């Protein structure tokens, strides 16, 4: 299989913790055939970190639903507080995306 899975994160903390660690692992090539295409975070300071530390072709969104609507990915990884997981997972599934929570 040679196809890539286009992937993005919806997170509350892209600058540290799970969101940043997973994003960096993907862009460092630690996960074969997985490509980070976009991230979402409600805080502008965290999106600025993403713009400074992630490749220029990784899109950033302030709202995870807009990212899902963008058509940039095949799957989402939700790294928000647990109580927000259902909201984003259900929305992603309703829009034909795979979701990891």
Walk me through the topology.
Blueprint lengths: L4 E7 L5 H11 L6 E7 L3 H10 L5 E3 L2 H6 L5 E5 L5 H10 L3 E3 L1
Parallel strand pairs: 1-2, 1-4, 2-3, 4-5
Q: How many alpha or pi helices?
A: 4
Number of domains: 1
CATH architecture: 3-Layer(aba) Sandwich
Major sheet size, sense and barrel closure: 5 strands, parallel
Short description:
This protein is α/β, with parallel strands linked by helices.
Structure description:
The protein is an alpha/beta fold and 101 residues long. It has one domain (9-100): NAD(P)-binding Rossmann-like Domain (Rossmann fold, 3-Layer(aba) Sandwich). The chain has helices at residues 17-27, 44-53, 64-69, 85-94; strands at residues 5-11, 34-40, 59-61, 75-79, 98-100. The longest helix has 11 residues, at 17-27.
Keywords:
4 helices; 101 residues; alpha/beta; single chain
């Amino acid at each position: 299989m040679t196809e890539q899975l286009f992937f993005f994160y919806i997170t509350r903390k892209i600058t540290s913790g799970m969101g940043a660690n997973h994003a960096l692992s993907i862009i460092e090539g630690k996960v074969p055939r997985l490509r980070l295409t976009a991230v979402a975070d409600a805080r502008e300071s965290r999106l600025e970190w993403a713009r400074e530390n992630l490749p220029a072709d990784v899109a950033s969104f302030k709202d995870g639903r807009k990212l899902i609507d963008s058509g940039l990915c095949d799957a989402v990884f939700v790294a928000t507080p647990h109580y927000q997981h259902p909201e984003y997972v259900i929305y992603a599934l309703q829009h034909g995306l795979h979701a990891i929570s």
